[in-house]
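Final report, results section. Input specification for complex C-07:
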Amino acid sequence: MNLILPPGVSRARFDQALKAFASVVGSEWVLATDEDRETYLDVYSPGRDTSHAASAAVAPATVEQVQALLKIANDYRIPLWPISRGKNFGYGGAAPRMPGTVMLDMGRMNRIIEVNDQLGYCILEPGVGFFDLWEHLKANKIALQMGIPGNGWGSVVGNALERGFSPAGDHSNNICGLEIVLPNGEVVRTGMGAMGDGKAWPLFKHGFGPSWDQMVVQGNLAIVTKLCLWMKPADEAAISIEIKLPKPSDLQWYVEALAPLRLQGVIDGLVRLTSYQAAATVPTLRSQWHQGTDSIPDDVIAQMMQRMNVGWWNGPLRLAGFSDVCEANLKRVLDRLAKFTRQEFPVTRMRGDAQPGPTTYPLQMVNWYGGRGGHIGYSPVMPADPKLVQEQFERTRRRYQQFGLDYSGTFYIDGRAATNVNLILYSKDDEEQKQRVRQLFEALIKDAREQGYGEYRTHLSYMDDVAATYDFNRNALLKLNERVKDAIDPNGIIAPGRNGIWPKAYRAHRGVL
Amino acid sequence: MKRLLVLLALALPALGLADDLSASQLAGQQVFAHRCGMCHREGGTGTFVLARRLGAAQSLLEQRTDLQPETIRYVVRWGLMNMPRLSRVEVPDPDMNQLVAYLTRLRPTATP
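Structure output:
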């Protein structure tokens, strides 16, 4: 990737800044070749690579180096895009929102500082991956559980800071205290960590006065250097109920049946239903099922369900905890399901600590079209209301059919709210298809806004569009975010444009791709 | 017996016992385990896709005898098809050299 300079920075000034960065971290940790820039591109981008191309990367190893780099960035007006491990696939990978931004790659800060099984937490640096933490737990026989997302390649810290989730729930809910470096270089610890030697830092979220953890999550006010995360003790037992529902309309009664049990805590985790296609996208190619450029038709869906041995909607539903409680909850769940269907659901009992580890296996879904593939997700949050969920599904599926793309949807029911993850797969080398993907995405944003639903997280290219849908009182929240941004980061050096929040120095870039 | 030998041959590279590895190759094996293994060992997504494209015999990179140093370096940095690229923070140049030493150790002309 050819060099795209940060806005308003000359080549000479850019080179001086890189030299200054090198004086802090060593020249081997300032990466500025064409090949280096290539490694930070969004490999699954639905648009042009140049829209989100970094100019260089710098990789600190200590908090003091982060402080020194921020001072230089302020002096030279160099915008930085912090990443933990850069595996935010489907949302932009490592790439920055604004072309020319310098990557602040935190991957070298990869210490597992503490894992405490007595009180159930860990303290991590950003570079620790799910595989690293998993291996640490196994090697040290620590009986704590991790929430593991579909792609386990990434950073535990980065995922929590993006509000990533797994069937265990929203991982940012488990954040309990951060160490952050502000744009002026000041190091702050949040919550109880605001006391020097605060003993309850990873134990009690709020400390005294306003709570700042969620100001940093999905934001661009500071660089996170340590994150305390709650972990749940391993369960004694687990029960898996295999859910395969044969018809698209089964979604509605299933939500009606189980959302109340989730709300009451009978089900400890998100209730997930995924459409048939997820079973096919990983082990097979689209061409094995259908050649047309239309959305896969119903007769082919029927074949797919039969051959992959899946339903239109699929579970599993997991109950975990003490074995006697699990058995009692299983009876409640099965009794409740029996009120809506005569279908029987196979039950498997297992040890509670038989949790599967991280995997990258689902990533191969991008091979659906057989060549270079990509994926993005449109994921609005809505009420966990049976009728509204069914309508959301039907409206969304009609949009996929309108634009000739294969429907692949998941609903995560969390008692009150439901998150509807809509996966869109495409070929990177089919410009006409990518055009339809973008049209679909824009239609989904518009549809959801009309219903009063908003996305919880989005791809770089849609951050401004999604931020605009949060429009109460003429986007008053976005304006507040930008006032705070300007006060704390007057030169706008940290992650300009992240989630639609633009500092005044770069505000003209809003909406520009 | 033949089946047992095949199984052993498959299992031993993962344990680092099958070959008499040089220090550099041994270090490269660690790089592979931490940076590549999640996709390119048994059951991984990279192994699956390679089996689909090249056949099962070519799917496990640690058993390949035909990998060229330049190919490994290129694929790590530029990706291949759906494989994401790995930066020099994730696989620094010295680690890349060790990785190349490890993955090319079975080439007929390999030198430790």
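Residues 237-457 of chain A form a domain with the Vanillyl-alcohol Oxidase; Chain A, domain 3 fold (CATH 3.40.462.10). The interface with chain B takes residues 28-29, 31, 35-36, 38-41, 43, 57, 59, 85-87, 89, 93-94, 105, 107-108, 131, 152-153, 283, 358-364, 366-367, 371-373 of chain A (CB under 8 Å). This concludes the modelling results for the funded period.
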